[in-house]
Amino acid sequence: MVVGLSAESFAEVAAFSEVKIEFPLATDTKRTLASLANVTSVPQVLLVDAKGVVRYQGHPAALGTEKLRKLLASESKD
């Protein structure tokens, strides 16, 4: 499941006319999760498994298809 998280309010996100968001979105205007997860740059991906273990954190471009496949395969073995 993909869930987006934005530091902007829903109204600000809705005003982005050039981007159509096709997944659930939550807002974190107080940056609570960003602080807890030590997010230092945007965009950032957190890949969390069903047990709540963070399998990947970083820039989405560094994840790549093959790395994502390996991470998902290693999760299913645990």
Question: How would a textbook summarize the main sheet?
Answer: 2 strands, parallel
What is the radius of gyration? 14 Å
Q: Approximately how much helix is present in the residues?
A: 25-40%
Structural class: alpha+beta
What is the oligomer described by this structure?
Answer: single chain
Q: So what's the overall shape?
A: globular
Distance between the amino and carboxyl termini: 19 Å
Structure summary, number of beta strands: 4
Q: Which parts are unreliable, with pLDDT below 50 for 5 consecutive residues or more?
A: none
What count of helical segments does DSSP give? 4
For the largest beta sheet, what order do the strands appear in spatially?
1-2
How many domain modules? 2
Q: Average pLDDT across residues?
A: 88
Strand percentage, roughly? 15-25%
Give helix and strand order, one letter per element, not per position.
Answer: EHEHEEHH
Question: How would you explain this protein's 3D organization?
Answer:
The model has no long low-confidence stretch (mean pLDDT 88). Helices cover 35% and strands 19% of the residues. By secondary structure, it is of the alpha+beta class. It has 4 helices and 4 strands; from the N terminus they run βαβαββαα. Strands 1-2 form a two-stranded parallel ribbon. The protein has a two-stranded antiparallel ribbon with strand order 3-4.
Give a short synopsis of this structure:
By secondary structure, this protein is of the alpha+beta class. The protein is built from four helices and four strands.
Task: Describe this protein with a few key phrases.
2 domains; 78 residues; alpha+beta; two-stranded parallel sheet; two-stranded antiparallel ribbon; single chain
